[in-house]
Specification:
heterodimer, A: about 290 residues, mainly alpha, B: about 400 residues, alpha/beta, six-stranded mixed beta sheet, four-stranded antiparallel beta sheet
Chain lengths: ~290, ~400
Amino acid sequence: MSTPQPPMPQTAAPNWQAAPGSSYPTYTSPIPVVRTHLGHALASEWTKIRSVRSTMWTLGVFVLLVVGIGLAAAALVAANSADGGVGDENPLSLGFFGLLLGSMCIITLGVLTTASEYGTGMIRTTMTACPSRGRVLAAKAIVFFSVAFVVTLAASLVVALADVSMLDAREPTGQEWLKGTVGISLYIALLGLLSLVVGSIIRHSAGAITIMIGVLLAPLVIALFMFSESLQDLQQALFEYSIPNQLSVFYSQSLSSSGPSGWDPLWIMLVVTAAAFAAAYALLEKRDV
Amino acid sequence: MIEAVGLTKRYGDKTAVYNLSFQVRPGSVTGFLGPNGSGKSTTMRMILGLDNPTAGHVTIGGYPYRKLPNAPRQVGALLDAKAVHGGRAARNHLVSLAQLSGIPARRVDEVLGVVGLQDVAGKRSKGFSLGMGQRLGIAAALLGDPQVLLFDEPVNGLDPEGILWVRNLMKSLAAEGRTVFVSSHLMSEMALTADHLIVIGRGQLLADMSVKDFIAANSAGFARVRTPDTEPQLREKLAGALTEAGGHVLPEQDGALRVTGLPLPRISDIAHDTDVRLWELSPHQASLEEAYMRMTQGAVDYRSTTDQKAGLQQQLPPGAQPPMPVPGQGQPGWYAPPPPQQGGQPFAAPQGQPGPYGGPGAPAAAPAADAPNPYAQQTPQAPQAPAQPPAAPAPSAPAALTKPEDAR
């Protein structure tokens, strides 16, 4: 140690080759180099999302809220309805309250998936390891969307089954089942994906979460305070297109009679998310990390 | 091989890097030096395609970084130790990076062993010390077994043993034929590690040469002359005579004189002619550290000023002396201007031989006081046989020397 010398090349060190057009020796790794693709990025993002505690926390609270509030609402309605039934109502609609609150958790997780990398500086490591920035964003989007969809579907299915069994109501139609479970789960997962994209644009966790909660609640709250006659149309539109109202459309018990109906909310959210994704992709390629 | 051509980066109206052109060759360690805020990290980020240059371009092996096929297998980088998600375990962090470039998971455990983190592989990196964070960052850089390696301030926060390890690691990587590019603001560290130096200040190239040439071009000798302490008038007399003979004389704090521009025999003759006895007449080589500081003194962005504590001090009791200010603080141009011609009249360092920034009794500079100039004796061999200054003072003392704000 007292006379440090340049160590000899390790035995693992491979052939010394002259790079084309260069007289310098270069190092070649013995580990085979593979061509990378989206699959590698997906595996990496899957490792990332399941190796931080915030994922477990947000999803845990989400399931707790959705299932807890869903079951409590069903129990409350079952106990208080004198004749033991809710008549003509869609029994699945009792899952609405839990999902409305729970969507905050999905928003948080979506934002954290991208923005936390900026907050911690991890993004520089990630983008150095994968200079195809768009691939990273796509992998994040796919992994997060799948996780959010599966978890929401499981939670809403549990609530739906419990509601149907606890309440003495009519049997929901197949269409209602589909919208009340798969449809609403797709919607919530898309809302989370929008948050992820906003997180990538804003690059700041708290800022992006605030924006997304504003998007979630502000239209409804603003509409509540629009007393003026001249603003009635705007108030109506804000009500109808507010996210809580769009959520309720999946149970076909819209807060208003006009506005989006059927599967409309899903298409609206899909278009908005796709537009935001395109913007985030363009910004990501252009901006400095 | 890293090649930058006319690299320029502006942030708003601040130019971080201006018209930087250089080449980093394989098979040697290239040091990238500059004061804080001189554009080292910005240049590193542009090499890695994280920041887009405003003008010019930089390529690795002929490709811009973002066009490299499977980039992490060709280029490994330690940008900053805190560029990890603190909530993720060290091993998971590396696994996610390995998966991104199709590296087998077995390799993760290998590099964890190389950097000595195998025992804390399952711990979240939030709880890591700065040195452990650096090791994790180095592990990430080595993960792809790349042929080009970039390290931004790799020894920050490492213990003496870790510094020695990094030093040897970089040399061994270069000896395998890899390109190793290391940034630092510590000249002393680079003098021991690097074969080639690229020095920048305020985002512009100041020097691009081998360490040997850098020493030859920038460090010049001086003579130390000491007259009997008991007769201060002899000192004045000799100083006058030497100046008259064309020498450049600077008093040192302990009473000695630092003389440049005159050969030793001539100094002796003058002393003899003026009837001055000498207690010491010795040749000295200015350290690389000082040469570097002189070169970059005009390019330092963040310079400390004297802490006035105006209005906060109690009235001094009558007769008490106000404390002497620590030399080096709040004095721009502390270093003498560069010599008029290369290798000509050498620069004059200020009084206080160990380091201009270390005041008397400044604890950080204390180790340097006894061995004022670790490079003076070994400079000619520095690149080939980077000898071993006592590992502990080497990193700490120069750290204080280069960072005025630390030496208070």
